Amino acid sequence: MTVTRFAPSPNGPLHLGHAYSAIVAHDLAREAGGRFLLRIEDIDAERARPELPDEFRRDLEWLGLEWEEVPAQSTRAEFHDLMLAEGTFARDARIYACDCTRAQIIATSTREGPDGPVYPGTCRDKSYADITGEPAFRLNVTNCIAAEPSLAKLTWEDALAGVQPVDPHLFGDIVLQRKDGSPSYHFAVTLDDATDGVTLVTRGADLFPASHVHRLLQGILGLAVPRWHHHPLLLDESGQKLAKRRGSGALGWGLADRRKAGENGRDLAERLRMGEMPCGITLSRFPHEAV
Predict the structure, then answer these.
(1) What residues does CATH 3.40.50.620 cover in the chain?
(2) Which alpha helices (DSSP H) does the chain contain, by range?
(3) Contacts of 62 (CB under 8 A, 6+ apart)
(4) Residue 235: closest CA among 193, 173, 290, 163
(5) Which position has the higher pLDDT, 47 or 52?
(6) CB atoms inside a 10 Å sphere around CB 131
(7) Is the pLDDT assigned to residue 123 strictly greater than 70?
(8) Of 8 and 291, the one with more pLDDT
(9) pLDDT for 56-104, tens place per residue?
(10) With 90 as the cut, is the pLDDT of residue 242 above it?
(11) What is the structure's pLDDT at 290?
(12) Most buried residue, 15, 37, 163, 231, by most Cβ within 10 Å?
């Protein structure tokens, strides 16, 4: 059965890009007679706004979408902790503590990755006794591959781009658990998609590179492997993707504002399905033109 999901973070209002992403996931599931899930990704406690999940539900209903809601990410903390502590990561020094600051990483990194400067491995061989404060925990990619050479030959499949060979070192030694004890996005989303039985991961093309590290984590943990569908992005007049951090939830592109102004959400959804973008909005070419 095809199972898709829409997984917004409640750190800002939804915009037209979210609407497009939710519609793609919803329609792919419905066309296959499958299930469309809603999961609130609220592990960033500092930025999460408790009033927004209800706004998200109203937005999706306004668009005419139907969904099944699964437990929010913040309710799964015990499971995330258990998966980090269990034997898979404990063997062969597959994780290590890291007390580096972001400024230190920027200063010592020698290459850029999809998430910015790639961590250079400063703490990889450091004794835990030499770690100061509350550390983050990182995946030791080199040790994982040394223990399981097949991890270097993994592939993943995108519905639009086809089969992709995994680049296990693309992101470097990613953080699995942050210094505050919360799981990283990469770790949590991989575990939660598997737990929720997601078989087709639909998301924007800006997250295309992230599938390399998610597939690597699936291989390490022995999780079921979904297919991916990275859809085009909605771009503003400047050619940049709509994003919460640039205020795209306002500026006339916010779903809640349009809903409260009396616009017909079902008509908007149909126009987005047909590729009829609101004034000033264009669709990116694959895989993406802007980040």
Answers:
(1) 3-70+232-283, 75-190
(2) 16-31, 52-62, 77-85, 87-90, 102-108, 141-147, 185-195, 210-221, 255-260, 265-273
(3) 255, 259, 265, 266
(4) 290
(5) 52
(6) 16
(7) yes
(8) 8
(9) 999 999 999 999 999 999 999 999 999 998 767 877 789 999 999 999 9
(10) no
(11) 42
(12) 15
Alpha carbon 150 to chain centroid distance?
25
3 state SS of 129: helix
Task: Report helix angle 16-31 to 265-273, nearest 10.
Answer: 70
201 within 8 A of 193, measured Cβ to Cβ: yes
Angle between helices 185-195 and 77-85 (to 10 degrees): 100
Amino acid identity at 109: S
Q: Is 128 exposed, middle or buried (0-12, 13-18, 19+ CB in 10 A)?
A: exposed
Confirm if 165 and 155 have CB atoms less than 8 A apart: yes
Whether the CA torsion 238, 242, 243, 247 is positive or negative: it is positive
* DSSP string for residues in 237-284: TTSPBP-GGGTTTSTT-BHHHHHHTT--HHHHHHHHHTT-PPTT-EEP
Q: How many helices (H) and strands (E) does the chain have?
A: 10, 14
Two tokens, residue 87: 């034997």
**CATH label, 75-190, candidates 1.10.3980.10, 3.40.50.620, 3.30.230.20, 3.30.70.3340:** 3.40.50.620
Residue range 170-187, pLDDT digits in tens: 999 999 999 999 999 999
What do you get for the CA distance between the two ends of the chain, in Å? Answer: 32
d(CA 110, CA 120): 7
Q: What is the mean pLDDT of residues 110-133?
A: 94
